[in-house]
Every structure is written in structure tokens, then in C-alpha cells.
Amino acid sequence: MGDGRPFRLLAVTGGHRVDLDAFNTMLAAICGERSWVFAHAVQPAAQQWFGPEHRGRFDAILCHDLPGLMLQRGTAPRPVGPEPMVAERLHDLLEAGQGIVFLHHALAGWPGWPAWAEVLGGRYHYAPADLRGRCWPDSGFRYAEYTARVGRRRPPGVRRRRGLHPGRRAVLLPGLRGGCCPARCAPTHRSARFRETLHEVLGTPRTGPPWTHPRLAT
To answer: How many Cα neighbours within 13 Å face the side chain of 106?
Structure first.
């Protein structure tokens, strides 16, 4: 950093299964190569850092969490929270200019809070839901090797490269225009076989019309 101190990163997990040993090993390796430092906090205790008074304590917050969604196999996903004070403090932290990076299942966080989807730039739906006045089906996913590309609006810190390392999990979700800029995008093929999230969570086969998603048509 310009003031001579190392880049400071706060990694947040909780709400979804994560191989913490592998995750922390990865962060330690990345930060070690760059002389960065990182701390790790778990939801919901991590929310103590989500306030404007902590702006600048960390140069970036890396969210690999899933707040605000109760998931249990055999039952429908249930949105919960956030509490008004948590939402207000987090809003003020963002208004103060705090940078946040969202990974993987963090895109499904706080589905009961419409404003959070605006922060995420979209939302991964574990169940059908409304977003900006439009009814969306539950999101889809598939496991496959693919080469991702940097989004049209290159985020800070992402080098100009034609392709990034192959991914193993592609998802279908609604993105919001004018929202945040994705660091990675994968091509969507109409013939690709995506799996439906809702019934994967419920653990029951779908009955009725075959599942589809509007993003398969784009």
C-alpha cells in the first residue's frame, strides 16, 4: 500500500459448507505471495465488522458466506433477516466506500432483502422469487470444465486476459444492469444441461413441466 503497510483482507464464511482448511490454505498462499495479510470471520459474528466505523480497517472484504437463508435438505429454503440495524450499518459501510468481493454461494445471500441483490449485481435463487418486479425461477447449475472470461467492465485488480483458469461449476442467475462488475463470466449454451437448484435442495424429483431458465435463451 502507499503508506507502507500491507494490503489487509477480511475473509468471511458461514451459512454454507466450506472446506475451511483448503480455503484458509489458499488465502495464506495468495497473501504470502503478495505480502498481504488476512483475517477470517464467520457469520453471524462477522457482522460486527459491517459498519461504517470499520471503513478502511480492511482494504477489501472477501465474502464466501451465505447469510440470510436457512437451508436444510428436505425443506424449502427460508429467507431470514437481516435485522434492520445490520442492514443500515452495512449500507453505511458501502456508502463509505468499502470494497467487497463476492464468491460462489455469496451470490445467494439475504434473498429477503431486495437491496442486497442490487449490491451483488444479481442474485442466485435457491427457490423461485421476484427480482426488480420480475418473477424468476430458481437458478441452475452444472459441473463442467469451462474457460471463463473477464467481464465487460474490468474490475480493479483484474488483468486484461482473454481467458481465466478453467472453472468447474457454471451457474444460471439473473444479473442486474448497472450493478457490480463480474470478475468472471462463462458462456451460456442453450443445449447445456443445467440442474435445478430448488429440487436439488429439497431432494425430491420435479413433477410437472420441465425446468428451464430465461438465461438459457440469451
So the answer is: 20
Half-sphere exposure of 179 (CA within 13 A, CB side): 19
Closest to 196 in 3D by CA, of 214, 212, 215, 218 = 212
C-alpha cell read off for 102? 463476492
Spell out the domains of the chain, with CATH numbers in brackets: 1-120 (3.40.50.880), 125-218 (no CATH)
pLDDT tens string 156-176: 444 444 444 555 677 888 887
Q: Is the whole-model pTM more than 0.90? A: no
Q: Please provide the DSSP assignment of 8-70 as one string.
A: EEEEEE-SS---HHHHHHHHHHHHHHHT-EEEEEETTGGGGG-SGGGBTTBSEEEE---TTEE
Predicted local confidence at residue 95, as pLDDT:
96
Residue 207, amino acid: T
Cβ(11)–Cβ(27) below 8 Å: yes
Nearest to 169 by CA among 148, 200, 138, 199: 148
Task: Compute the 3-state secondary structure of the chain and give helix, strand, coil in percent, each to the nearest 5.
Answer: 25, 25, 50
| Contact indicator for 214, 172 with CB cutoff of 8 Å | no
CA angle 112-116-120, nearest 5°?
A: 130
* 149 contacts 163 by C-beta, under 8 angstroms: yes
